[in-house]
Amino acid sequence: MSSTSIQVSYSTSMSMQWEFEKSPGSVIYLFSITYAIAITFSIISCWRLDNVRTKVWVAACGVLSTGLAVLSGFGLLLLLDQPFVMTVASCPFMILGIGLDDMFIMISCWQRTCVLDSVPDRLAETYKDAAVSITITTLTDALALFLGCSSPFGSVRSFCLYAGVSICFCYLYSITFLGACMAFNGKREAENKHWFTCAKIPEDLPSSSSKAFGYLAVSIYGCFNLNEGLDIKNLALDESYLINYYNNQGQHFAEYSCNVMVAVKQPLAYWDADEQKHLHRCISNFESLNFVNGTLAWFLSFVQYANATNLNIQSQESFQTHLSDFLELNTMFKHDINFTTDNNIQASRFFVQTLNNASTKDMMIGLRKTAEECPVDLLVYHPAFIYFDQYTVIMDNTIQTVMVAVIVMLGVSLILIPSPLCSFWVAFAICSVIVGVVGFMALWGVSLDSISMINLVMCIGFSVDFSAHISYSFVSSPKSDVNGKAIDALARLGYPILQGALSTILGVVVLCMSGSYIFRTFFKIVFLVITFGLFHGLVFIPVFLTLFGAFGKWF
């Protein structure tokens, strides 16, 4: 709010929660834009000049299939009373990319079947080629997300659960609903009917490595410059009044940090000399911290008031009597004391003003340690601590989750891709993509927090998709030499992989226009994952398999 002479920015302890709850609504209108883009891209990329062989309806059904998967996954979990947190709102954008990737793989495999074969035979051949490849990527994506359910962060658990279940439904609809749509479309093709009018077309008418080192060097440099923690103002929408508040706070009061509440949780005989010494010692310990500017405590002010007016507060009766008078004169302290019905003090609080000369993590840990050392039972609290708490575990938890997921992905690859060397390179691709994403997201101004951690867990699954497709196609190729296998794999899956990557990027690109930091972060990381995953799948993996696969014993 402002006037000609005064400008005021404001915030309350509930402001961030209220603003946080507005974030999902800020991207609802983007869903329709995203799905319109996805349908348009799918139809254009599957369009053929041949009015019989074109796959327009299959492309449209592929987008519908992913929409059904999201509705089914979300509906099931909501029926089971699973909490829907704000971060889950980004799931539909991710599921759309996965579903379209599966669709493009299936269409590519269908296109390679013999047009003279019956529809059941063509569909069987399609599933023979596509089923294992799609199953590998679904397993890796779902496992990576379900592993994220072990995270200590509720927002991460909710996102991973909703996304993992939706991916399972996406797989189910791809092999059932989408397969049925392809069969109906195949029947139309077999009867030589127009894709739109379904009228029969007359037979006589035509149907009408240094770069790798450079990439890793930049990525590793970025990893060492990765910041931990979440800037609280990023949780609010760009147009929120809180942004102005935090900007003004940083501009005019940058030297100060949180005004932290310290609650005395136990009843005390505040009039007793020994209890007074204990409380004074506790307050002095807080004030001696190098990041504490001072304290505001009703107890200290009351003692000063009593000394200045020569009041005796050494007995319970006199203490309570004079305290009542003191609170009438100093109403700001009324809410700092919790009285029982018989006018005894059940609990009280005081405030510690901290400075910005220490990290928020060190400040929070230091205050808690000081409270634990006090002989009085204390509780240290500030609304921002719910976000600062992640600093203490975010790095270790992220590394642990990523390492476990990589090991699981390697196990899945070894089971479903009958080649140790291919499985090794798939695992290498996962690690390389993760390093690249972490490094480049740091260079792009994204810190490691619970929001980016969600996306990193998701990226583990995404990073394996393209490499697994190419590796499996390489192993299953009938060609005898490694060069022929690589060429055959790229010829069979290069275009559908490119289609899947572009559709995923188009599915999330609208999020870059979001007014929420959370959804912009989602876009940045998905963009990096898809870009690096595509680069590894179409460039690194074929080259490495060709170079190291020359030792024919591996295949």
TrEMBL record:
Matching InterPro entries: Patched_domain-protein (IPR051697), PTHD_SSD (IPR003392), SSD (IPR000731)
Membrane topology per record: Multi-pass membrane protein
Q: Where in the cell is it found?
A: Cell projection, Cilium, Flagellum membrane
Q: Which residues form a coiled coil?
A: none
Identify the keywords attached in UniProt to this record, alphabetized. Answer: Cell membrane, Glycoprotein, Membrane, Transmembrane, Transmembrane helix
Gene3D superfamilies attached here?
Multidrug efflux transporter AcrB transmembrane domain
Say if the entry is tagged with keyword Glycoprotein: yes
One Pfam family linked to the record: Patched
Q: Which domain of life is it from?
A: Eukaryota
Span of domain SSD: 27-184, 428-547
**Transmembrane portions of the chain:** 26-44, 56-78, 84-110, 131-153, 159-184, 398-417, 423-446, 453-475, 495-519, 526-551
Q: Is Membrane tagged as a keyword?
A: yes
This protein's GO CC annotations: membrane; sperm midpiece
Q: What does this protein do?
A: May play a role in sperm development or sperm function. However, does not appear to have an essential role in spermatogenesis or male fertility.
Q: Which family does it belong to?
A: Belongs to the patched family.
Return the protein name.
Answer: Patched domain-containing protein 3
| Provenance organism | Eleginops maclovinus (Patagonian blennie)
